Amino acid sequence: MNFDQLITNLRELDRSLKERAVKVVNIGLTVRNWLVGAHLVEFEQGGEDRAEYGESLIPTVAKRLAIRGLPPTTLRLCRTLYLAYPEIRQTLSGELGKGLMMSQLGIQQTLSVVSEKGTPQTSAESTRPGFAPSVGQLLEQLTFSHFVELLRIEDPLQRAFYEMECVKGVWSVRELKRQIGSLLFERLGLSTDKEKLLRLTAEEVTPSLPADIIKDPYIFEFLGLAPKEVFREKDLETALLDHLQEFLLELGNGFCFEDRQKKIRIGHSDYFVDLVFYHRKLHCHVLIELKVEPFNHVNAGQLNTYVNYYRKREMAEGDNPPIGLLLCTDKDHALVEYALGGMDEHLFVSTYKVALPKAEELEAFLLRESKDLPES
Description:
Elements: H1 3-46, H2 57-65, H3 72-84, H4 88-93, H5 95-99, H6 102-105, H7 107-113, H8 124-127, H9 135-141, H10 144-151, H11 156-169, H12 173-181, H13 184-190, H14 194-204, H15 210-214, H16 217-222, H17 227-231, H18 235-251, E1 255-266, E2 269-279, E3 284-291, H19 297-313, E4 323-329, E5 334-339, H20 346-355, H21 359-372
Helix pairs in contact: 1-3, 18-21
């Protein structure tokens, strides 16, 4: 072995073990969620005091558990996962379970607690088309986030099609969502040259990488990490947000810090607002998004979505409409854009202009900080 071979071997060792670690964590998350769903269904069907909870069972479980990553929405997904893929039980009891040392992890004992008689017999196992990948393949190659997207598809044939294409093409979750949204299954049915359509689709896809899985928010929550660690962008942007938070509080204009990387759920997706303040003089929320790039309409649309969400879901009695503040910079100059979010009361707009920092102050802050802080 020469020196170059030594370096090559060490790099390959590092890469292969990292990939293995990511796979084990991913499978562990999916298995955990399937077992959670199994326990929920088991209790619903035979729990001694199940009638006491009824429809409030899942919210009550989430509150009592207080486990990050298992809010009511995820618990419902766990239940659906169990009902849609009952044959995971056999997979965990077979070779995959042995390979993952399920007995040492206590999984086999958990399987024995959840009775097989409660396993649904009329869903996935009996209706899965012959061409569908095995559930063992799905567990090894797809993340729980993939399953979340697949579970929204009610037709077993259509779901199996996307399962197969995911496994064959090593699709990321984003790619799976894109293909479902573009109606690939329906377009395939209408196409006379189906092989050509699938070939062209495969040529456009960027395969998923282990790094993509590491950034999966479900993975981060499973590992007990904070949401802001999931979606943190460049080190420069993070440092700017740290300083911006202090800068606004030091102004003494009435900003009361409320949250950082505030998680909100819109439809089936999670989004994170960079900074959320409540302004005690304006009696409204102030939502701040910072982008280390020149202003563009996509950024404005994103912030406007957050403002509309807060107006509909977070305003309390006596509150004024929320304010959106978008800060953009590209290191050479700063552009400050205010998204007023539909404020149509002139008096409030006038008060807003007096109470918030002047655009010039924020421009100076961004210019100064972006030059002084190191790039990632």
